[in-house]
Here is the input.
Amino acid sequence: MGRRALALGVAASLAWPAGWAQPAFPTRGLRLVVPFAAGGVGDLTARIVAGKLAERLGQPVVIENRPGAGGVVAAETVARAEPDGHTLFLMSNGTAVTAGLFKSLPFDTLKDFAPVSTLGFFDIAVLAHPEVPFKTFAELLAYARSHPGRLNIGSINIGSTQHLAAELFKSSADIDAQTVPFNGTPNLIGALRGRQVDVGVEILAPVLAQVRAGALRALAVAGEKRSAVLPDVPTAAESGVAGFVASSWNAIAAPAKTPRPVIERLQREIAASVADAEVQKKLRELNIDPRASSPEQTAALLAGDIKRWSAVIERAGIPKQ
Here is the structure.
């Protein structure tokens, strides 16, 4: 073989698309690494979509729960996995928070993942006991401004999306208030019902039953539009706090360097899974707004939330871990 022929042969072997057929994807079962414990809303979202995705791909999609360290354990597992599309990560807005909250991470959140598609969005609400002096979000703002330093805003764990949303609320509304983090949603609900805090900021899904039962009142939601499950509750922007826009979300990502055709196949099948009528029904029953997106839209969402929450963390003076 001459040098020219040898060079062409080597080039062809290195350039995969040039006349070579890619192996079919997937060639085996997929693993979806979830940074939450089994049974939570994020875990259930993953399982509902994974069931339909497995049908469409013709391969099982196994959920692997790896909670801990703010999602770092799960994220690192996927960042170091073979970039062939068979190991996926349930990314969330918590992933963006972690990027701003930790001094260093064993991966680069923006460079070591290939976002594929969002699965769903979760409304964040401002809640209060029905017997507090303010009955609307506007009245809450008036109360906070006439009683500087006296309002207590409950949330869950320091550094959580809910805690940062409470800090965002304070800065956006320009009110002097104290944030009080609790260890988990049940403790926050107990504090609200016991009137140990004036208001709370929490994802709507786990407290909706309390709102519908009249045990808590939703004063506003922090979304860009009203919640489909509580259409009579205004957005914070409608009530005069335009900067208080926040939501929780879940998405699927693959390791960086996963071939683009594999990403595109995954995105198509995930989008079709999210659009499935039965999947939509199950997600909406969990008070999740099912919504798929393109890889580019998902990447932009992640980058935007990293910038947003990093600014909130810095402004609130939250120590980096």
Remarks:
- The CA atoms of residues 24 and 134 lie 60 Å apart.
- Residues 1-16 have pLDDT under 50 and may be disordered.
- The chain is about 40% helix and 20% strand.
